[in-house]
Design a protein that fits this description.
The structure holds two protein chains of two kinds. Chain A is of the alpha+beta class. Chain A contains two helices and five strands; from the N terminus they run E-E-E-E-E-H-H. The chains are: A alpha+beta, B alpha/beta.
């Protein structure tokens, strides 16, 4: 239940009163409720739990953590500080 | 995006972090990953054996399938046995042993028990079958709460009156209080579950870190995320810092997802909850609010008088509290296997026993 991988929103639609989307998970398309990600647009990535998107994700955010590696690798991070 | 995410599985980057952990660690530390999904991920990627021997991972109770009380499993079985009911559930719950049988055996005896991927799907089944009662087994931590909650909101808005939910919601922070406040506690640092925090944020963990002098790192699920969570926790432990750090910033903010929180607040309120194998933890769960009581399956069906009977051999309670490892159970791998589980920890894709069985850890 917790190993949600991000999926890409292919389409947004309305099902009665519910904002839904078709989300692509590496080739598998699933219907997902988008009620808690009001700003999500087609092409965005979302983390989905039990058919419900709980978080959006951008390329920039995903890249940010990776950029911290230069710090770790160069032993520049201090013991008492977070690298994040 | 996929190319970026691939890097979170890069063996080279993971090894770099592992090397830094080895450099920082000077003495033994016991760190609990609260989330069962992370227990499996650590083993699936072989990370447990790559960590320095000073780091012991203690597996937490963060497996909703495992901690759903026997009483509620028995209630689910009683409701599902009703011929006018379509009982819907996440797949893992079907094999969880009740006192006498499981939901699979209800289905084998002719009960209409269906696996759904989400409660929204269950709601659709209710719309398509107006003459039947459709019940959803609403289990889970804060991650599934918005999904389960929205189905009840939509049922009320759209007047889908043949839909109801058997609610078994549990919350992480009260469980952490119970673990850290116990006289037998060995946990010195925590990996907080990334997706629980994606919903709830992590401000509510800050007082826990301070009160129990226990550092907490919000941690994701890819191999690189997992070792980064350990890395941040070890740094805090070695420096005597007791705070919460976010090692999963691409998905988690301190405030969390406010829209999801408001969906939870609209429908659910805190309650005492009985955790299977652990016992009652005060205000550790959520139940439906009075305004949504019409959609509460426990009110709709007469299941008040359930007498439960737990397996005498299974030690899942001790495993869920981090006091025993699965291989310390006499039934592990012989009397108890994923095909014939004695306890829920052997059933679930997030249970510690099933992880040890699947990845061959002794």
């Amino acid at each position: 239940m917790c190993l949600a991988v991000p999926g890409k929103i292919l389409k947004i639609y309305q099902n009665d009163t519910t904002k839904m989307g078709v989300v692509d998970f590496g080739g598998v398309e699933l219907d997902v409720c988008l009620e808690a990600v009001p700003d999500a647009a087609v092409g965005n990535y979302v983390i989905v739990h039990a058919g419900f998107a709980i978080s959006t994700l951008t390329d920039e955010e995903a890249q940010e953590t990776l950029d911290l590696f230069d710090q770790i690798d160069a032993f520049q991070d201090e013991d008492n500080e977070s690298i994040f | 995006m996929n190319a970026i995410l691939d890097k979170y599985r890069s063996a080279e980057l993971v090894e770099k972090v592992l090397e830094q952990i080895r450099n920082k660690v000077t003495r033994p530390w016991a760190i609990m990953e609260i989330c069962g999904g992370q227990t499996h991920a650590f083993m699936q990627y072989g990370l447990t054996d790559m960590l320095p021997k000073e780091i012991e991972l203690i597996h937490g109770p963060g497996c909703p399938v495992c901690v759903t009380s026997l009483e509620l499993v028995d209630k689910a079985i009683a409701i599902a046995s009703n011929p006018n009911v379509i009982f819907t559930s996440y797949g893992d719950m079907l094999r969880v042993p009740g006192s006498d049988q499981d939901l699979f055996s209800v289905r084998a005896s002719g009960g209409d028990v269906r696996v759904v991927y989400s409660p929204i799907e269950s709601l659709r089944i209710a719309k398509e079958n107006p003459d039947r009662q459709v019940v959803f087994f609403g289990i889970g931590f804060e991650t599934t709460a918005p999904s389960n909650a929205i189905s009840v909101i939509k049922a009320k808005t759209e007047k889908i009156n043949n839909y109801s939910m058997l609610v078994s919601h549990v919350c992480v922070p009260p469980a952490m209080h119970a673990i850290l406040g116990s006289s037998s506690n060995r946990v010195q640092g925590f990996l907080a579950a990334g997706h629980v925090c994606a919903v709830m944020g992590f401000a509510e963990y800050e007082p826990i870190a301070v009160q129990y002098h226990t550092p907490i790192a919000v941690t994701g699920f890819e191999p690189l995320d997992l070792v980064l969570g350990i890395y941040e926790t070890v740094k805090m432990l070695e420096s005597g810092i007791f705070e919460v750090r976010n090692a999963y910033p691409r998905a988690v903010t301190r405030e969390g997802n406010k829209a999801a929180q408001s969906i939870i607040r609209e429908t659910l309120e805190p309650c005492n909850r009985n955790w299977r194998g652990i016992g009652e933890i005060p205000m550790s769960g959520w139940k439906l609010k009075r305004e949504y009581a019409d959609y509460d399956a426990e009110m709709r069906f007469d299941v008040a008088d359930i007498k439960t009977k737990e397996s005498e051999i299974c030690i899942s309670g001790l495993i869920l509290q981090g006091l025993k490892k699965p291989f310390e159970c006499s039934a592990f791998g012989n009397l108890c296997t994923p095909q014939n589980p004695l306890g829920a920890t052997m059933v679930s894709s997030e249970g510690a026993c099933s992880a040890y069985y699947r990845y061959g850890r002794k």
